[in-house]
Amino acid sequence: MKIIIAGGDGFCGWPTALYFSQRGHEVAIVDNCIRREWDKELGTQSLTPIATMEERLRAWKEISGKDIKFYFGDLQDYDFVEHIFKDFEPEAFVHYAEQRSAPYSMIDRQHAVFTQVNNVVGNLNVLFAMKEHAPDCHLIKLGTMGEYGTPNIDIEEGYIRIQHKGREDVLPYPKQPFSFYHLSKVHDSHNIMFTCRSWGIRATDLNQGVVYGLWTDETKLDERLYNRIDYDGVFGTALNRFCIQAAVGHELTVYGKGGQTRAFLDIRDTLQCIELAALNPADRGEFRVFNQFTEQFSVLELAQRVQRVAADMGIEAKVAHLENPRVEKEEHYYHAVHTKLLDLGLQPHLLSDELIQGLIETAQRYRDRVDFEVIRPNATWR
User: Fold this and answer.
1) pLDDT, tens digit, 9 for 90 and up, residues 61-97
2) pLDDT score, position 175
């Protein structure tokens, strides 16, 4: 299969590109490498050292014997998007190429506007290019569980059956997004749904939970293939951050009481889910929604589990309850359905103490790359 990985230089995109290449697919990466520029803007860096895209691709060719094509450019540039569709003729387009941090989108007006323009316009350009040049291409779009918010009813997979005044219909599940970033994902979902209905686009929207972990079979092969992992208060995510904080002697930063419950999955399962979607594509005109996660935890549960594993390693990790910079319910009902990917064959890697220990050990190895000044949150929702 000919597969484009848009955002292939990022935390999810890079291991996905290697995963598909290793399995014999013809892979192209599309990226403008702006994620590296955001590190410079924020005065931070990946915990793990990451090679340039040129070095990464050269190393992959050397180790695997396989080529991955690289298109450097921005999805906001329609001429560029049109070029890659004409040149590569993809059968599947895996779309990670968006600003993916809620805190980044909440820094100020400029960051909110950038996030929504970058994400929504880039996605629209992909849809128009598919309509004009690859009508049978399957769009696999990374959404987020954060689109749903925390309703006091079960979260279904994309759609909900409603009875109202004696009539019944199946409608898109109501959205209560958490941030300007999550709002951009909702706008994407609506635009994709509309183009599926109007143009016959085939699309799978993967509403992904919070991803944890670092290593995949391919990224472990050589230091030049290492994936990035973030620990800062803007791009770092809960479990990974807690493991890194424990490793370097920083308190575990729990926002408020820590009762916020979210959906989580191992990065290896992200790759599985993308593959299952690609190998079992949506039909023409179908807007398919999968909830992509394997387990649900509260933030405090994760911190306490990291604290316990760290203690077994001889590390004292203290939990600190910070004032919550976000406007969100700290204690709430949360139960999300996630059966469709399991039905397709997903074999989950559930959270283990061994994975937590491995993350802590990795962070200990690279502890000199951690800057304590960027760990705490610096964006507020208020």
Assistant:
1) 999 999 999 999 999 999 999 999 999 999 999 999 9
2) 97
Q: Which of 357, 105, 103 is nearest to 242 (CA)?
A: 357
Type of residue at 38: W
List beta partners, residue 336: 155
363 CB-near residues (< 8 Å, 6+ apart): 47, 231, 243, 244, 246, 247, 248, 370
DSSP letters, 320-357, are EEEPP-S-S-SS----B---HHHHHT-------HHHHH
- Quick one: pLDDT band at residue 271, thresholds 50, 70, 90? very high
User: What pLDDT is recorded for position 320?
Assistant: 98
DSSP 8-state symbol, 85: H
d(CA 243, CA 305): 10
Closest to 194 in 3D by CA, of 144, 120, 83, 85? 120
Q: How buried is residue 65: exposed, middle or buried, by Cβ count under 10 Å (0-12/13-18/19+)?
A: exposed
Q: Report the predicted TM-score, pTM, of the whole model to 2 decimal places.
A: 0.98
| 301-320 pLDDT per residue, tens | 999 999 999 999 999 999 99
Residues catalogued as catalytic: 144, 181, 185
In degrees rounded to 5, what are phi and psi of residue 155?
A: -90, 115
For 169-215, give the DSSP string: EEEEPP---SSHHHHHHHHHHHHHHHHHHHH--EEEEEEE-EEE---
Cβ–Cβ < 8 Å for 149, 177: yes
Mean pLDDT of the chain: 98
CA distance 87 to 207: 29
**Predicted confidence (pLDDT) per residue in 155-192, tens digit:** 999 999 999 999 999 999 999 999 999 999 999 999 99
Whether residue 344 contacts residue 300, with contact meaning beta carbons closer than 8 Å, is answered with no
pLDDT tens digits for range 239-264 = 999 999 999 999 999 999 999 999 99
Do the bridges between strand 92-95 and strand 210-212 make them parallel or antiparallel, or are there none, so unpaired? Answer: unpaired
Q: What residue type is 205 in one-letter code?
A: D
Helix-, strand-, coil-residue percentages of the chain, each rounded to 5:
40, 20, 40
- DSSP track, 125-169: HHHHHHHHH-TTPEEEEEEEGGGT---SS-B-SSEEEEEETTEEE
Six-digit token string for 303: 């911190």
